[in-house]
Design a protein that fits this description.
Length: 153
């Protein structure tokens, strides 16, 4: 994930805002289905202002999809523990449908049981996959807002 200047473009701010609104709208249904979960992760894949796909964490059982991507991108931790992260879920939904490169923007949002933002910085395995694909604009939630590691939006 390449870093860029400290100015947040209007387009990126709109994408971040829309992602937060979508996560909050998806949260009640996700919570009602999985009340035992402490947190809920969503990842949104965007190109320009168009939402291309939504991914979600599935931490309750190993995933063939997670294992496939872990082997493809040689991420040993996920090979050993193939649980599907929201970032890989969204990439898998884009895979073969759109060219995944630096034009794709990913926003990862984690909500706790009360719907408050929590840290959702991509793990090392997810970062490896996103970097390999050339995805440079990756934003994630913190308890203070949304960031790309440099700028709080």
């Amino acid at each position: 994930m390449q870093k860029h200047n400290t100015q947040v473009s209007t387009r990126m701010r709109n994408i971040v805002d829309k992602s937060v609104q979508l996560a909050l709208s998806l949260f009640p249904e996700a919570y009602s289905e999985k009340q035992g979960y402490r947190t809920f992760h969503f990842a949104f894949g965007w190109k320009k202002n168009k939402l291309l796909a939504i991914g979600q964490n599935y931490p309750d059982k190993p995933s063939g999809k997670a294992l496939r991507f872990a082997r493809m991108f040689k991420t040993p931790h996920t090979i050993a523990y193939p649980y599907l992260h929201a970032e890989i879920d969204v990439v898998s939904k884009l895979w073969g449908k759109v060219y995944i490169d630096n034009n794709i923007k990913i926003v990862v949002i984690r909500l706790n049981r009360t719907g408050q933002l929590q840290n959702s910085k991509p793990c090392k395995s997810c970062k490896t996959v996103l970097d390999a694909l050339g995805v440079e604009d990756v934003w994630w939630s913190t308890n203070k807002g949304i960031t790309d590691g440099e700028v709080l939006c």
